[in-house]
Amino acid sequence: MFSRYNKSTPPGRTGAPTAVPTSAPAAGIGARAAAPVSQKTAAEAAASDRDKKRKERLTELKVEIHKRLLEDLNLSALESASEQNLRQEITSLASEALDDMSVALNKEDRLALTQELYDEVMGLGPLEPLLKDESINDILVNGPKRIFIERAGKLELSDVTFRDERHLLRIIDKIVSAVGRRVDESNPYCDARLQDGSRFNCMIPPIAVDGSLVSIRKFKKDKLRIDDLVRFGAFTDEMAAYLQAAVSCRLNIIVSGGTGSGKTTTLNALSSFIDNHERVLTIEDTAELQLQQVHVGRMESRPANVEGKGAVTQRDCLRNALRMRPDRIIVGETRGEEVIDMLQAMNTGHDGSMTTIHANNPRDAISRLENMVAMAGIEMPLKAVRSQIASAVNLMVQASR
User: From first to last of its 401 residues, what are the pLDDT tens digits of the chain?
Assistant: First the structure.
């Protein structure tokens, strides 16, 4: 199997297994219907304390067994192993370890322990259940003990925690190393993409003062269409019909909005109106767009490596895309000097191109475009900049929460 060796039971081991306390209430609680409030409160506190100690003990067991798994598992065989075989092996090794430590667990705790061990070995540890929960849109980690989640636009503190800062850093390192990046004191932050396409950003101490910061914007497997947005109340039927006509008539469109306002979702929905025979090139810093057309080329910018070399910017991608005979160019988000190339593309035969921009209202969006043109180092009078924006941009769609 995946074990490097079969561990035999240590000779001479004696003693009955030590049971981990369960969270069952103490005997006698609730026996009398009219128990004093103080007795109920004391009983509830005692039960809560037992449950806390039980969870702490399970965490200690998980740490110890995880160390043994790393020693016993044949890590080189994990990638080719089926999930079923790997789970069986982890269950077997965990049972051996529990026997060696003379610890007895009930069925529920054994299953929970095995799942957590599997997540540690093959997944992202405590984050794994949150990533699998389709109702969660964002995962925000503020140090090892405070993990917030966003559901339906509302933030809430989850009951999931990391063991300590070292545990959190190990999961961060696992994520960034999978995409060929590195995070350390000399390079304390990183953008990456998880295997499922979710967008990941992190910053570690000493820049992150109270513990490592992690942000995960989850990737939606099912792309929302314009009909879905109408059903959710984001658009009216008339607005949807107008936007369909605008895309079909090849108007250049900018979707403006604040953070988390649904700019990318709106851009995805608008892209569904593009004719299937058109050649579309997309450019993003983290690939999120999910175009369904046949002729789509996707590009993703790349930051510099730890030596400061190898960076490929969105502007590099955009300049190269102009040489690839695109009918339309879609930039996931325009945020810097690539804006001048985007405006020129819209003005020079690539009608129907689209992008998004961070701004709280359309007037601010125009101001941001002007500022980004100045950032590109192009010496142009403000009147000329405004003239270029006016001729390039046909429609502004403002998104808000």
Answer: 454 444 444 444 444 455 555 554 444 444 445 555 556 677 777 767 777 776 677 777 767 776 666 666 665 556 666 777 777 777 777 777 777 777 777 777 777 777 777 777 788 989 999 999 989 999 999 999 999 999 977 899 999 999 899 999 999 999 998 887 889 888 899 888 888 888 899 999 999 999 999 999 987 777 778 888 899 888 999 999 999 999 999 999 999 999 888 898 899 999 999 999 999 999 998 788 888 899 999 999 988 776 778 889 999 999 999 999 999 999 999 998 899 999 989 988 899 999 999 999 999 999 999 999 988 887 889 999 999 999 999 999 999 87
* Domain 128-217 top-level CATH class: alpha beta
Lookup: tokens for 178: 């999978």
Tokens, residue 173: 């390192």
Q: What is the pTM of this model?
A: 0.69
Question: What does DSSP say about strands 147-151 and 154-157: parallel, antiparallel, or unpaired?
Answer: antiparallel
Locus of tokens 């061990």? 117
Pairing of strands 147-151, 136-142: antiparallel
Hey, where are the domains in the chain? 39-122, 128-217, 226-399
CATH pick for 226-399 out of 3.30.450.40, 3.40.50.2300, 3.40.50.300, 3.40.190.150: 3.40.50.300
**Ordered DSSP codes for 97-149:** HHHHTTEE--HHHHHHHHHHHHHHHHS-GGGHHHHH-TTEEEEEEESTT-EEE
Q: How far is CA 134 from the centre of its chain?
A: 12
DSSP H or E segment with residue 72: helix 37-72
DSSP 8-state assignment for residue 299: E
Phi, psi of 190 (to 5 degrees): -160, 145
